[in-house]
Structure formats: C-alpha cells, structure tokens
Design a protein that fits this description.
heterotrimer; A mainly alpha (305); B alpha/beta (539); C mainly alpha (300); A: 305 residues; mainly alpha; 2 domains; 16 helices; C: 300 residues; MetI-like fold; 71% helix; disordered N terminus; disordered C terminus
Chain lengths: 305, 539, 300
C-alpha cells in the first residue's frame, strides 16, 4: 500500500520532468509504437484484405522458409563479417581526425578543414559510387598513377579480395569528417582549466592528448561505439548496392541485398520480409546489449548511467 | 541565439499555416467529387454529363508536363469529359510504390503495373485489385479483341475465374509472326566492317561474332586506339549474347521446362548452358569485351557506341524506334550517315538457329482500384475501347486527323508532319499516356510512317528471319504450368541470370568447376520447386 | 590572462613546429583527397556528354558548357524540389529540435520513477520497427497521405541523436542545476536559460545533423506523396541521377525514351545544385564549436 503511495509521491515530486518527456513521448507512441504492430507479421501470413490484425497466425512457418535458403544465412555471415571489419577499420578514423584538427594552432585552417572534411557526406552513395568507379577503373587516374610507379594495374572494384577493403576505404572517405564533428563538439566541452593545470606541470602536447583530451571524450567514444555496434546488421545497403557489381556478387550480398533481390524479383511477401527484419533487429539488440554490458564492465557508463 | 530561435518559431508558425492551407486542395480521387456539368460540348454524348478526374500512376510520366494541356489531349478530354491526373513512377521505385499502395488499400484509379505472377495471384486472392464485370467483353469488344491477342489474357481468365487486369499487347493488329521472338539484337559499325572486308549479313552465329570482334580488335579500322572495345555490352544484356543465344532454357521463363523424360528440369544446369558460358568467358579473357563491363551502368555501353564512337558492337532492341534513335544519335554526335555506318543483326546459336523463349505478347498490365465507382470505371473502359479501334490507333500514333495525318485514296495513310518532327515532340501528353494506353507501340512500329522505310523493313525482316531460323526446340513456346506456378519456394528462385552468369565467368579458375559448384549451390532452392512442378503434372 | 596565452603560444610555436607541420601536411593530404573528386564533379557538370565519354577523368573540361545547368533549371523540377525541401526543413527542424532536446534533457535527469523503463522503451524503437506498410496505414488513418505533414511528422526524433544529446547533458555539472532549483526555477526554465547556452556545441551538432537529414529525405516522400509538386529535392535528384539499373525484360518500344534524357553532366549538375545550400549550414554553425569559453565564462 505504502509502496504505491511512495511511488505516487515520487511521481508528483518529479512531475516537471514528465512534462519535459511528454512531447517526445507522444511522438514515440503515435509514430514509433503505432506501426509496431506490424512486427507481428513475422509470425503471420499477411492477407492485405484482413489487415495486419486480422491476418492469420502461422507460428514459425515464415522462419522455416527463411532459413531454408542457404543464401540467407550466407548473407547474414557476410553482413557480420563486412560490418565488423568496418568498425575495426573505420571507427577510430573520426576520433583521430578530430584530435588532429583540434591540435592545429591556426584557427582559419582549422575551420577550413572542418568544413571541407564534411563535404563527402553530402553526396549520396549513388554519386560517390560513380565517382569511385570512375577514379578506380582500369583506365582511371589511380591505375594511371600506379602504372607509372609500379608498372601494373589493379582491378579495384572487380576483384573479390580487394572489394571489401575498397568498401572500407570509400566509407572512411565519406563519413570520417562527419563523425569527427561529434567528437569535436565533445572536445569543445572540455574544461580548459585541465589544460592549464597540465601546462603548469610541463606536459607535452602529445601527452595532453592522451591524458586529458582522450579521457574526457571517452564517454562520447563509448556511446558512439555502442550505438554503432547496435546498428551492425543494418549498415551498408546504399553503399554496397551502388558499388557492387556482378564480379563481386559473391562476397557482397549482405542481408539487405538479399532481401532486395528476393522482394524485388518475385512476389512481395511482407511476412517474409518482416520475419527477416525482425531477425536482424534481434541480432542488433543482442549486440547492443552485449556492447553496453562490456562497456560497463570496463568501467565506462554504458548507454544509460 | 534568442533571435534565431524566435525567427525560427515565427517561420515555423507561418509555414504551418500555409502548409495546412495547401494540403486541403488536393483530393482528386474522391469518388464523390462533383465536376461541372458539361452540356453542349462538341463530342460529349449524353452519358458523359459528369466530368471525372482520373488518377493514373504510370512509368515514363514526365513530371513537368500538364497532360491535359495540349490540343491532342484536349480533344480526348472533351470527347469523354474527363481530366487526367498522372502520377509519376520511376523505373527504380515503380514496383515498390505500387506494392505499398496496393497492399495498404490505397491505390490510384488506374496503375500501369509490371506483371509478376505471384504478385498477381496474391492481389486477386485478397481482392486488392478490381475485378472486371463478367460481361465486359461484350460491352467493350475492341478491348476484348486486344485482350485475346495477348494469349495470356484468356489463360488468366481461366485460371482465376475472372479478369482482374488488362495486359497490354505488344502486337494487336500487325503481329509479325505467330510465335514471337524477342526483338533484341546487335548494332554494328557497318563502315568498319566493310572497311576490313567482313560480310554484312542479317544474322551471325556466336562464333562468327567472336571472329568479327577479333578482327576488329586486331585491325582497328576506325583508328580508335586504346579505347576501342569490340563488343561493348553491360551486364544486363551480356547474357543475351552468349548463354541465351545458344540455349533458350538458360533464361527465364524457359528455365523450368519439361525434359524428354517427361519430368521438369532446370535449364541452367544443362551442359548447353555451360557451352554458352565457355564462349562468354573466352570472349572476356581474349579482351573482346569491355574489361570492366560489369561496372557499366545503363546506357553507358550504348553511348560509347553512338556518342563516343569507341565501340564496334553493342546490344539493344531492334524495333524501328530504336533503330531510328541509334541512327539519329550517330548522325548528331559522330556525323555519320546511318545507312552507311549502322547495321543491325540477330544473334544465332552456333547451330545456326535462333534460340529464345517465346515472348508472350504483352508487357505490363493495367490494373484498377477496387474502390473506384462504376461510372468512372466505365468511362475509362470507353476510352480504352476507342483507343483499340483502328481509327483510335491511327490517331494515337500519328496525331490529329486532318492536321497531322490523312487517309490516302488507297485506304492507307500519310503523315502531314514536316520531316524530323515526331508526334511525341509535338504533343507532350502523348507519351506515355496515349501511346501506351492499352495497345503498345511495337505494333504500329511496323507501319509508322515517321520512321524511315528501311528501318521498318528491317524490323519486319528480322522478325521473319528469327521465326524462320528456329523450331519449337529453339524458339521455345511458353510452358504455362510453370509460368503460372507460384509458391513460397518458387519465390526464392528469383535469380537475376544475367548477373549470375557474369559473376560465374569472371571468377578465376576453370569455368566448368565453378559452374558445377554454382549449380550445386542453387539446386538447394531449385529442387523443391522442381518437385512441386513434377507433382503438378503427376510425376 | 589573454595576453599571457598569446605569449605561451608563441613560445611553443618554435618548440613544436615540427609536430604542427607534420599535422598540417597530413591534413592537407586528407583535404586534397576530398577536394579532387569534388573538382571532378564540378568539372563534369560543365562538360558536354561527348567530351565526357572521350576523356577518362576531368579536372577541367576543354570545352566547358553551361548547357547542363540550363537544361536542369529549365526543367523546373529542381525549383519545386527546393521549395518543398525548404518547407520541410523550416517546419521539421524546429520540431525535431524541440522534441529531441526536451526529451534528452528529461531523460538525463536522475531519480524519477520509470526512467530506465522509458529509456529502454525508446531504445527499442531504435532497433525494431514495424515496417513500411503499418506506417503507411497509420498515415492513411491520420488522413495525412499526399500532404507534406506526413513527411514532416514521420521523422520526429532520431533516437541515436537523442541518446548522444542526453549523454552530453548528463555530463553537465549538477551543481549549476541544483543552485537554479534552489532559486525556484522549473525544469523548462532551467533547460532554456542554463542548459541550452552551455550545450551550444552539441546543439549545433545535432542541428546540423537534423538539417542534413531533412535536406536529404526522400523515402517517406516517395511513398506518401503522389503530387508531383510536393516532391522534395532529394527525390527529384534521385529521379534524375539514377537511371534505373533494372529494366523490365524485353521492354516494348514505348519503354525507352526516358532513359536517354540525362547526360552525366546534367546528373552532376543536379548533385551540385542539391548539395550546395546545405553545405553552407556548417560554416554558419561553426562558431558554436568554440572550446570551453562558455563554461568558463559562466563559472566565473
């Protein structure tokens, strides 16, 4: 009895906080949870005439069909493989860039670099892919320079082994400057008194970076890492779709490409695609929670402190 | 900062207000919209007393065009007392948009839809598209005639016990042959070929084609230099030159067929497909193809042929429309005379025969909203019916009678338009609204006076040639059982064969080994389908 | 204080110049790798199709032409796209910011019941979503199809951004908030008068991100909007740049004209024209990325 009373009192005490949350909550309820019922389609056979609620249940039948196609599991592994590589290769790049930009003493130059570095993000993958294909083609400038220096040309986009590193290279090119902004914002929030104190102790600039700047933005880094991991199964469709071609089809059919191929070239089966999406989301969630737990174990704050 | 916030809030409120106002004005598809009553308009008969607005979602709609504006369209609109509201779809999002709208029960009045059998079965079963009234064939006989000519139409009626879509026939009045071959073929630089003494024929076998490519590569008659590509074709069309040209069962929809033992087989697993792949790979490894053909996007191969002039052979459709386009481009960009520089030929298998699955006489279909009221539906059918008459067709293809064309004494017709002007440049509303309304323009292509006679003759010749050079094992008639088969397993067998074959030949190593491994992998999803099909025919 | 810092910099400049130079050189190479492809894009936009096909990569076309720009603007769609996207941005961006900031700040407060529950419920939506059909039906129920509101409202809060913002808020010194509460300020007042000024870097960042998201939106418009006059810029850009790579097998003769409309030059034109305005937002917001000045100022 009194627990409820306590609860009521706590709620009343914090009532202003709830008003803060209210606008966002309304949006979430209508637009995020409203359509959420569609998730049930993973376990139903969708009959449009009956709508989502009226469609009949079919248990795990959809998943039987999903798993029966070896291409499906292959695409799951490929997605994991490519995206884990993506994190390993590319996660640190924005951090390093932000640190470098931060260290520059010339303000003008700093601003220019900050701005220019973000340019590639404004191009969609459609455009970036046509630029890349142009630059890396067998008679493009990169191969031209290579043939001058090393007397051979490399098939960048048609070679299965090189294709995946090319994915990483192009992604780093496109997104580093953009994500660096988050880290720059975090660095901007560091209390300058810390630097003053360090200077008095006679610390070098490199030590500054490792002992002051980095530790201060650790919370930001860990959040970004956790969120990136939580998106692992979903990343990359636009890029892979636009950059891949028949020659590298085998290594590049990630989950979204598989779904695209299946739904595009045959009848739409919404229960099937919902089942696959749900599966993917579950994996993402597991990864996210794992990353969160590990971050906490390592002494960080995790997603919610 | 505070100023910025207040500015933004003010803009926010202002725009909220204006956006709110503008969103009320558009609700064109409401069945209860009251138009003005038009009486006394020239061609409006009594039954067209109420003006209707028709929503039509289609590909190739030009977003900037007002489809009701030009004279041509106005005549039709006045005659039937309607107004068009065209909803543009792009090739890229066509299927997805329609799929979402239809499945959510919110489709426009008419939609031009890419026919996929499984999808059709689902829509029919769930009553998401309109069922045509049972007596529609007697009420609109011209449409019925066009419908019959598609061959698939009556079969669908049988299968589903009713008509739910109107497939658009390619050929309704001028069908060139009984079993339709495909019109794709190769465009070649005739001037180069003549220069080095290659015989100019109407059809080449694959081996002959490769020989020609070798000679051109070696001798470079056009003096192009490094950029010369003997055969420049992008992935999507490559398979057309090699495996598909030698074996009809290596492509859909003939991939599932009944073999000699009476059971269903899967074509890509047959040794003939391997033969085609070997030729493909040989061509690639010898450098006769574009080294990175798999990165070529749509049109890049064609543009190298008729804009840059660096390709000797490329692949595209053969109707007079295409030939005209190629010719015009060659002239414009390279200053070449198409009669001297351009040649079009068919590709035959090495047995001298033409291989291809029968092309069913339709492409896309019109489907109707189940919620549209009958009056609108009937009006639409009246328009379609008129378009399917002989006179209607002439008008659609050639423009306004008496202004753009006229009948000649011998029952033929003659264009009155100045040279170089085509009907779709004069009346922007024609494409695609009228030209592809129901009967497609392949039909008229054969007799369209705005194309040079030589092109039309060639098209006709090609069709006849392909029919002649084939028999029922090479120009394979449609197997309706497998064509109409749909199941969850069948939906998994959604292969893009062109990409699959390209990827096979680009792999390192022995093509036979790679192919065998590929077949084995695919069999896991193909075998269940074969089993289902065999069950259907009782084996 | 200030002049002392200046002298400090000057002294260290001599000592660390090698480090700085290395840094500047590396960053210059990075910049070059970005600028060169961009110059290529700009160059192509001024190139005729024929020249484009005959030379492999351009830094500057031999025969520049304004034809592509002329064709693009004559078409008129780009202008419609601009108008729609600007409306979406001017209405949507404040909506996004208000919702996200208030929610993030609310979640950063500690000790109220349901805090973790709400957080996990919201996190759930970031990972799971019901799919496009239920969304469409919802918009249909709300009678928002074919209106600009469907697009504006469908993207209300980006949970990723919200979490980052929340994270930042929770690192702000509690003491400031406590003292404000003692002075009798309510949560909203604290948010506006204390938190926001202190959080300019992160607010500027999130504003930038949302702006770009809004500018680049196309998917929801593609599904919800049928009226050609309400199409946003990115959607129109896609229509221009992506000639479909899928073509219905053996299409009929009526199905070809469209593919030949857009040259590479025009495509690049469209890219630049779409990109330029939004690229200008960042320099404008850059002044909010100033290091620690505000925290220091408020403290003293």
């Amino acid at each position: 009895m009194s627990r409820i009373q306590n609860l009521a009192r706590e709620i009343w005490k914090n009532r202003m906080v709830y008003t803060l949350l209210l606008p966002g909550l309304i949006w979430y309820i209508i637009f995020a949870y409203g359509p959420m019922g569609g998730l049930t389609l993973a376990f139903k056979t969708y009959k449009a005439s009956k709508g989502i609620w009226g469609s009949p249940w079919c248990g795990f039948q959809n998943y039987v069909y999903v798993f029966r196609d070896p291409a499906f599991l292959a695409s799951v592994w490929k997605t994991l493989y490519i995206n884990i590589g993506r994190v390993l290769a590319g996660f640190c790049a924005p951090i390093i860039l932000a640190l470098m930009i931060n260290e520059i003493p010339f303000n003008r130059y700093k601003k220019i670099i900050q701005t220019v570095a973000t340019f590639p993000q404004f191009l969609s993958w459609v455009v970036v892919s046509s630029i890349m294909i142009n630059f890396f083609s067998y008679n493009g400038p990169v191969n031209f320079i290579l043939s001058l220096l090393a007397n051979k040309t490399v098939n960048f986009l048609g070679n299965e082994k090189i294709f995946i590193p090319m994915l990483y290279v192009t992604e780093i090119w496109k997104t580093t400057g953009w994500y660096a902004i988050i880290y720059l914002a975090a660095i901007a929030g560091i209390n300058p008194e810390q630097y003053e104190a360090a200077r008095i102790d006679g610390v070098t600039r490199i030590q500054n970076i490792f002992y002051i700047t980095l530790p201060n933005i650790m919370p930001t880094i860990s959040i970004m890492l956790i969120l990136t991991i939580g998106n692992l199964m979903s990343a990359g469709f636009d890029q892979v779709f636009n950059l891949s071609n028949a020659a590298v089809r085998d290594v590049s059919e990630i989950l979204d490409m598989y779904i695209y191929r299946i739904t595009f070239q045959s009848a739409p089966d919404f229960s099937f695609s919902t089942a696959v999406s749900l599966f993917r989301a579950v994996i993402n969630m597991v990864l996210l929670l794992m990353a969160d737990r590990i971050a906490k174990l390592l002494g960080g704050e995790g997603l919610i402190g | 900062m505070k100023r910025l916030i207040s500015f933004l809030v003010a803009m926010f409120l202002l725009l909220t207000f204006t956006a709110g106002c503008s969103s009320d004005t558009k609700d064109a598809s409401s069945p209860t919209s009251q138009g003005t009553i038009q009486t006394g308009t020239e061609d409006a008969s009594q039954k067209y007393s109420k003006k209707l607005v028709i929503d039509w979602a289609s590909v190739m709609v030009n977003e900037g065009t007002d489809y009701n504006a030009d004279e041509f369209s106005q005549q039709w609109c006045k005659k039937f007392n309607i107004e068009w509201n065209m909803i543009p779809l792009t090739w890229e999002n066509w299927a997805e948009k329609l799929r979402i709208w239809i499945n959510s029960g919110d489709m426009p009045d008419i939609a031009t839809w890419n026919y996929v059998h499984g999808e059709y079965a689902a829509y029919v079963e769930q009553e998401l598209i309109r069922r045509l009234p049972d007596d529609w064939k007697t009420r609109w006989p011209n449409v019925a005639k066009a419908y019959e000519s598609t061959v698939i139409g009556p079969k669908l009626d049988e299968l589903f016990g009713g008509t739910y879509c109107l497939p658009k026939p390619r050929f309704a009045m001028n069908k060139p042959s009984e079993v339709l071959p495909n019109h794709m073929g190769i465009y070649m630089r005739k001037d180069w070929m003549e220069q080095i003494g290659i015989e100019v024929k109407d059809a080449y076998t694959v081996n002959e084609l490769l020989d020609i490519a070798r000679r051109i590569k070696e001798e470079d008659p056009g003096n192009v230099g490094d950029k010369l590509v003997p055969i420049e074709v992008r992935t999507g069309n490559m398979a057309f030159l090699f495996p598909w040209a030698v074996y009809a069962h290596s492509q859909s929809p003939a991939d599932f067929y009944i073999g000699e033992d009476g059971k269903y087989k899967w074509g890509p697993a047959d040794p003939e497909t391997l033969e085609g792949l070997k030729l493909y790979q040989q061509a690639y490894r010898e450098g006769l193809l574009h080294p990175e053909f798999y990165t070529l996007k749509q049109n890049e191969d064609l543009e190298d042929f008729y804009v840059a002039g660096t390709a000797a052979i490329t692949c595209e459709g053969g109707l007079a429309y295409y030939q005209n386009l190629f010719g015009a481009q060659l002239k414009k960009n390279l200053g070449l005379d198409p009669e001297k520089a351009m040649h079009f030929a068919a590709v035959l298998g090495n047995d001298g025969k033409y291989h291809h699955p029968e092309v069913i006489n339709f492409w896309t279909a019109n489907i109707f909203s189940p919620d549209m009221d009958n009056e609108k539906f009937e009006r639409i059918m009246d328009i379609f019916d008129y378009s399917c008459t002989q006179e209607g067709q002439y008008i659609l293809r050639m423009g306004i009678k008496g202004v753009d064309w006229e009948e000649t004494a011998d029952g033929g017709f003659r264009t009155l338009m100045p040279e170089g002007q085509t009907v779709d440049s004069k009346y922007p509303s024609i494409m695609p609204l009228y030209i592809n309304m129901l009967i497609l323009s392949d039909d008229f292509d054969m007799i369209n006076p705005s194309y040079p006679e030589s092109y039309r003759q060639r098209t006709k010749r090609q069709y006849e040639l392909r029919s002649k050079l084939s028999d029922s094992t090479t120009l394979v008639p449609t197997d309706w059982t497998s064509y109409f088969h749909d199941s969850p397993s069948r939906r998994k067998v959604a292969f893009d064969y062109a990409t699959e074959y390209a990827q096979l030949i680009l792999k390192e190593g022995d093509i036979e080994e790679n192919w065998k491994a590929w077949v084995q992998e695919k069999m896991q999803v193909v075998q269940p389908v074969l089993d289902e099909l065999n069950a259907l025919i009782g084996k | 204080m200030f002049s002392f810092r200046k002298k400090y910099n000057k002294v260290n400049l001599l000592k660390y110049s090698r480090f700085d130079i290395v840094l500047c050189v590396i960053l210059a190479i990075v910049m070059l790798s970005i600028i060169i492809p961009f110059i290529n894009v700009i160059a192509v936009s001024f190139t005729s199709q024929q020249e484009y096909l005959q030379s492999s990569v351009l830094i500057f076309p031999k025969k520049p032409t304004l034809r592509n720009y002329y064709d693009l603007f004559k078409d008129g769609r780009i202008l419609i796209g601009y108008r729609t996207t600007i409306i979406i941005l001017l209405i949507g961006l404040p909506l996004n910011l208000i919702l996200t900031t208030s929610f993030a700040y609310g979640l950063s407060r500690k000790g109220f019941p349901g805090r973790k529950l709400i957080f996990y419920l919201v996190l759930f939506t970031m990972i799971f979503n019901g799919g496009v059909i239920p969304m469409y039906m919802l918009i249909k129920e709300l009678k928002l199809t074919n209106t600009i509101w469907s697009v504006i409202l469908a993207y209300g809060i980006n949970t990723f951004y919200m979490i980052i913002m929340r994270n930042y808020f929770s690192t702000l010194p509690e003491s400031l908030i406590e003292s404000a509460k003692l002075d009798g300020a309510g949560e909203w007042k604290i948010l506006f008068s204390i938190i926001l000024p202190l959080s300019m870097p992160i607010i500027a960042t999130i504003t930038l991100f949302y702006s770009v998201d809004r500018w680049n939106e196309w998917y929801y418009s593609m599904i919800f909007i049928r009226n050609a006059n309400l199409q946003p810029l990115q959607l129109i850009l896609r229509n221009i740049v992506i000639d479909s790579q899928v073509r219905a097998q053996a299409a009929s003769s009526g199905a070809i004209l469209e593919e030949y409309k857009f040259t590479n030059g025009l495509k690049m034109c469209a890219v630049i024209v779409t990109m330029l305005p939004v690229m200008c937002i960042f320099p404008f917001l850059q002044k909010y990325f100033v290091k620690g000045v505000l925290i220091g100022a408020i403290k003293s």
